[in-house]
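Archive entry. Fields below.
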Amino acid sequence: MDRVPTGIKGLDELLGGGFPEGRCILIVGSPGSGKTTFALQYLYHGATMGETGLYVTLDEQPDHVKQNLLSFNWDLDAMEKKGKLLLIDASGLRKLRARPEESSSVYSGEFPEGMGFSDLLRTISKVVEGENIRRVALDPITSLMLRYGDVLERRRATTAFFDTLAESGCTSLVTSELKTSLLDRRFQIEEFLSHGVVLLHTLFHEGNIVRAVQIEKMRGIPHDTQIRPYQFGPAGLEIFPRDKVF
Amino acid sequence: MDRVPTGIKGLDELLGGGFPEGRCILIVGSPGSGKTTFALQYLYHGATMGETGLYVTLDEQPDHVKQNLLSFNWDLDAMEKKGKLLLIDASGLRKLRARPEESSSVYSGEFPEGMGFSDLLRTISKVVEGENIRRVALDPITSLMLRYGDVLERRRATTAFFDTLAESGCTSLVTSELKTSLLDRRFQIEEFLSHGVVLLHTLFHEGNIVRAVQIEKMRGIPHDTQIRPYQFGPAGLEIFPRDKVF
Amino acid sequence: MDRVPTGIKGLDELLGGGFPEGRCILIVGSPGSGKTTFALQYLYHGATMGETGLYVTLDEQPDHVKQNLLSFNWDLDAMEKKGKLLLIDASGLRKLRARPEESSSVYSGEFPEGMGFSDLLRTISKVVEGENIRRVALDPITSLMLRYGDVLERRRATTAFFDTLAESGCTSLVTSELKTSLLDRRFQIEEFLSHGVVLLHTLFHEGNIVRAVQIEKMRGIPHDTQIRPYQFGPAGLEIFPRDKVF
Amino acid sequence: MDRVPTGIKGLDELLGGGFPEGRCILIVGSPGSGKTTFALQYLYHGATMGETGLYVTLDEQPDHVKQNLLSFNWDLDAMEKKGKLLLIDASGLRKLRARPEESSSVYSGEFPEGMGFSDLLRTISKVVEGENIRRVALDPITSLMLRYGDVLERRRATTAFFDTLAESGCTSLVTSELKTSLLDRRFQIEEFLSHGVVLLHTLFHEGNIVRAVQIEKMRGIPHDTQIRPYQFGPAGLEIFPRDKVF
Amino acid sequence: MDRVPTGIKGLDELLGGGFPEGRCILIVGSPGSGKTTFALQYLYHGATMGETGLYVTLDEQPDHVKQNLLSFNWDLDAMEKKGKLLLIDASGLRKLRARPEESSSVYSGEFPEGMGFSDLLRTISKVVEGENIRRVALDPITSLMLRYGDVLERRRATTAFFDTLAESGCTSLVTSELKTSLLDRRFQIEEFLSHGVVLLHTLFHEGNIVRAVQIEKMRGIPHDTQIRPYQFGPAGLEIFPRDKVF
Amino acid sequence: MDRVPTGIKGLDELLGGGFPEGRCILIVGSPGSGKTTFALQYLYHGATMGETGLYVTLDEQPDHVKQNLLSFNWDLDAMEKKGKLLLIDASGLRKLRARPEESSSVYSGEFPEGMGFSDLLRTISKVVEGENIRRVALDPITSLMLRYGDVLERRRATTAFFDTLAESGCTSLVTSELKTSLLDRRFQIEEFLSHGVVLLHTLFHEGNIVRAVQIEKMRGIPHDTQIRPYQFGPAGLEIFPRDKVF
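PREDICTED_STRUCTURE:
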């Protein structure tokens, strides 16, 4: 299976070269663990190699996102101007209530008029096709919980997102908030739906906070299964692929 | 009781020869633990011995499944061409809402028109009979949770699947996602309905991730009850049947 | 109080002779802990002493049950032919939806026409009386959860089962699935309704799986209250009544 | 405050003489911990001193209860014949559905015709007054959960029981099933409503089961607050009031 | 901020002089931890200094409450006769169902006719004003859970109580049952609504029960934040303000 | 990114200079951990440097809040008189029921007549603009749970608050009650919605209570990620930015 270099220092070594091409990978982490950093670092690395990337924000506005990453030595604006980095602002979506018939129509082929969830899916598909996008990042899927009160509806919307990304042919990242701060936890629907899962842990061990990455699942390729320390460096996340956490 | 060799290195030793013939075995594991690898390894091993196997995917499309397993030294395509490996793509089923009257009709003998859950059950039965199938793998039963909001409906659909497999005469595997990452957990309905349960654990022990297999239940045959380490090797899962996990 | 020898090696020593006569004992265990083995071993032992036993299966068909126990040195078929072992197949009951008025009628004296839950209760009563049954085993009560979505209805059905067994005059066993794999757990309604409770634990201790039996409750007789190791042997379950688990 | 000797060996020392007179004490324990033994031992001790006691069973029939206690050196039948021990069989109550208007009428002064929950309360009041009862035991309050699906209704019925006992002037015991097997637990409504709470623990410590009693609450009197071991002896429960559990 | 001496031996040292004047303090503890003792000890101490105190019981009748405290060297009756201790018996309130419109009217200004929850609030306000009360104790707020099935309604009633006390100008205590026996727990609405929270823990440590007090919150004043042992002595609760629990 | 000095001793060192300008930071802590102190200390520090601050209280009245902080060496009244500290009393809001149509209208642009939640949002926006406010503190967001019974409605109201603050251009603080006293916990919606999260822990370690601060998340700037001890001093909270908690 072809590999897509991640741009995350140390991660390609854990993956044996990079993400499997054309797959949809979930990045799960607690608040502040670096999920957005991970997503943009991946897109920026692709852009430096000439691959156009698409960033879809469901939470913060693109300007905020870019501002948040100014401390890293990336030139996102330059990449955006070159057309190598596209940003879709879907942060307003969480403010809209889901229309009753909307989520069910996701799979029925009939889409209601007006901007909404289904429009976003179609927009992503169109942009990916029209702009020859190879890398997509959707950040974070967790925002959907603000729209849907019903568990089943939320599952369907989440499924729709993953299916859209899978059918796009891109190698995609989706970020998700960890629900608890523990290693022992209930698995989330997103983990089940994605081809790969990378966990960004924030562990509390003997009075210290320790950041650690774990490749929980990565279909189709052999990969390191240990839990490895990471930190924030000038170029973004840096993983120590041969160290133990404690 | 006759035995069916599993093809999983080390597992037959734990089972005293293989799975009990004609039974339905549940493979439970966390994301990335190798459930799909386990299922196809079992079918592929049968195919090399001349037994036709049927793989029913409720999650990924067959092409993706086969692609995911390319890193192993199996020739799935050859087996498929020889007619020794059949694949049913039921991945689309999760996108369809369950029709209100459908799940109850499972046992009533009346099936609604159109493709749906009941059709899948009948298709499996027909293929098993028509193609002289001896091994079936259904992967993963967890997808049903995307269809049913109601617990009781989900239980009935799960029961219907297990009954169909039990009545088929095949030695079947069903995979299921573990709900939590712990040894202490709530048992799931699938464990109750199956004749055997094999658990694929992902344990966190003193800073390390440890993969371990445990035969929780295997009706009708004596078997090892300890928890044993396993890893991914070139031929798929490899169990160390005489080692301790830690 | 008169005692009924259990046929489980080591158990009579823990009980000071056997189960209290005429009582209803609950056997609770995790999947694969040997609940069905326990139940049939008890009935078979009675049969060898000339006592007719009745086995009611709510889960597997009788043929499967007997096949599962072939590895033990029992001749169940011979006992069945002598009329010393009767089997009622109620495994189909779990496929039927509970009729709304059915469970409430359990205590009202009016029974609806057709086969159902109430019919099973009356059948058990009739067989016990007509065949001079002394030992009954009902395996497993957990199957009722497949029929009832409502907690209160499930409680009433469970209560009806226990009352029927208590009024039969037999010394009865009822098996139940443990809900979690831990020593610390929530007690289940069945434990509350029965005269005695025997727990079959599957413990995880320092990297090992340990099987252990505990007589949690046994009204009317003094009994060992410790937790004791057990294993599967050629004659069924074997308890080590003077050993510690670890 | 006047004291009522309990008849439980070692308990009066923990209580500084006995239960506070006229109060309602809750005995909470896991299955098999000896709640019924505790209740009858208390009544029997009173009877030997000439105090008439009333036992109300909400679970087992009186004959079963007495049979269960035959292993102790008490002569319950003799006390019953002397009129020093009265038994009310309310075990049938759990089989009746609560009538919708019944629980609310508990406090309204209007009671529906026919036997039911309110009748039991009035019967207890009448018997206590007419027979000059000094000790009452109600065993177990947990049976009410079989009647009421609604939490609020169950609370009201429980409250009604406690109020009836408190107004009777007797020194009363009410038994209740512990919901979990742990020291850390959620408190139950019964603990809140009673004047005193005695806990009968079944602890798991280093591979051993340890029985231990703890006076959690005893309004109006100083009392030992430690957790103390106990066992079953020929005269019933025996507490070791100066020992530690481990 | 002015201080109100508590009368609890050792507590004023932890508080740097006493409770902040005019505030509402919550006393949270498990059953038997001494919440009522704490409340009356506080009022009695005020009475000995000439401050009139008001005790509102939502659980036990005043006679029972006073009887429960006879083992301490207080003369509550004398203080009551002098008019320095007033008692309002609201124990009957828990028996009344909440009227649908009642809880919402708490803030609307319209109060229904007849005795009820709103009447109690008005009575408290009137008595405080008319009798020049400086100290109030309301014991326990937990009784409200017997009245309200709905969480939101219970919150509103709880809020109404706290607001009434805050507006009274008194330094008030409210007692509340701890929901679990652990240090790690979910915070309750009462803790959020009060100006200060004192926790009375019953800890289980190496086979011993240890009683310990902790000032969790005390707005407006510096205070000790450690967890300190306490016991019951002849004058009520005694805290050891410089000791560690273990 | 520009920084805003916090005024919390030791915190600027952890943040590399202060909060990121224009962002909304969540302060999460258990009862008594100093959330209000943190909020006012931040505003007061700004005021001493000439920046006007706005404090919105959703819980206590402004007079109480100021009184609570008298033990610190701040002159809040002087700052208020100079117009450098504005206070909005929204403590009454929690007493009002949410009107059914109100929360949905938050985003629809139509606001109902009368004072309510939407009015508060508009008032905050107007004051911030009209008075050239640079620092806002909203204390505590938790009060909203008293208004809304429905989870989804509460989420929407919470989201509206955060959006209003984000659009104001101010560097804002929002305080929130921690739901449990543990390091392992479920993340709350507020953590997800804010740009930064500062946790104020109250840990129990070997018999001691330890206060500790942790910067869980701070988008846009590198920051210390360890958990650090803090205490209350004469000038408010004091963090020890180079110490370990234990």
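CURATOR_NOTE: Chain C touches chain B at residues 30-32, 36, 59-60, 64, 67-71, 94-97, 142, 145-146, 149, 177-182, 202, 204, 207-209, 211, 232 (CB under 8 Å).
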